[in-house]
Amino acid sequence: MKQSQLFTKTKREAPKDEEAINAQLLIRAGFVDKLMAGVYTFLPLGLRTLKKIENIIREEMIAIDGQEILMPALQPKNNWEQTGRWDTLDSLIKFTTFYTKNEYALGPTHEEIISPLAKKFILSYKDLPAHLFQIQNKFRDEKRAKSGLLRGREFLMKDLYSFHKDEKDLNEYYEKATEAYNKIFARLGLKDITYLTFASGGSFSKYSHEFQTLSDAGEDTIFICDKCKIAINKEIINEQDNCPQCGNKNLKEEKAIEVGNIFKLKNKYSTPFNLIYKNEDGEDKDVIMGCYGMGPSRILGTIVEVSHDDKGIIWPELIAPYQLHLLNLSPKTLKDKADKVYENLKKARIEVLYDDRVDATVGEKFNDSDLIGIPYRAVISEKAGDKIELKKRGSNEVKMISEEELIANLH
Fold this sequence. Notes:
Layout: H1 21-28, E1 32-36, E2 39-42, H2 44-63, E3 67-68, E4 74-76, H3 77-83, E5 93-96, E6 103-106, H4 111-119, E7 130-139, E8 154-164, H5 167-187, E9 194-200, E10 207-214, E11 220-225, E12 230-233, H6 234-239, E13 252-266, E14 276-278, E15 284-286, E16 288-294, H7 296-306, E17 308-309, E18 312-313, E19 324-328, H8 335-347, E20 352-355, H9 362-372, E21 376-380, E22 388-392, E23 398-401, H10 403-410
Parallel strand pairs: 3-7, 9-12, 19-20, 19-21
Antiparallel strand pairs: 1-2, 4-6, 5-6, 7-8, 8-16, 9-10, 10-13, 11-12, 11-13, 13-16, 14-15, 17-18, 21-22, 22-23
């Protein structure tokens, strides 16, 4: 992609109405645009990054037998009345249509849709287990949308729902899903600062679990057990002051961002829809459910919060919008050389953003490169002669290499 043709431009100043670092940097670098509080447009650079996060999540869900579907965001009132949540869920966005006067909700979650859907296809023990997931926009009436992409009124969410014949099968799959989440956070570069966190299971389980990433920008308080390498959220600590796994009371308090959660729903959302199956003896039994949530857009914001410096974003290599930022510092005299390097990089299937701008100063090109945060920067200049300067974002080390070596370094 030639930067002269890029739809967006960088901004020098952070927007005055954004306090969160993730929103400030993503807007300045041209990854997102704020439409209103809690609602953002993903621009070309931002969407490339978001899709890479999505694909990592998708791959790991498929690896644990997830089958992808896409459910409607527009949901009928009746389904929500069946679970009793039409009048009790504060974040539910409701409205009445102009022509038919029917009442609907914009989906903040999908238990009320997935359970009656599963009822149509799960009839016998032979149909179990089943695992369905989607990646879709969610809508919540947040009282105060804040923290950039960390708390929005419209946001992207991955929902996985699992269906089982009994709790033993659910428990076994729950462990698989936990391991899949750990793999995702490792691929995203968040493994060392993300903790499996004990949380309240509400009315249907003693515990649920969250995945919390350490960050000063976090809205949650967690307590880390260094013995077990797990954490406990504040709600649980208020009930008990020790680690639920080992009993350790010497816990370390930290701020964190919730980036995922998993619940053993059991029959909480199967019973209202009479979601049952016939077992081997022909008896009717409740289908047992689990759900596993993860927010790709929140993860994107979290990565910016934990991976930046005073110059801009520092993207992990697997999710950066481009692998390499190629800068031509002498676009009038070295155009042919730089164009040739750009074309050869593309032929080598290296994702490259090529700063070919004629009207940008050298300082502007360097500043924009640091702000955008692509993992590697290659510089073509009169000073470098036949060589190319290669530098990794966040490092001070500069290598002088040939074009062939540049391509070899990036493969």
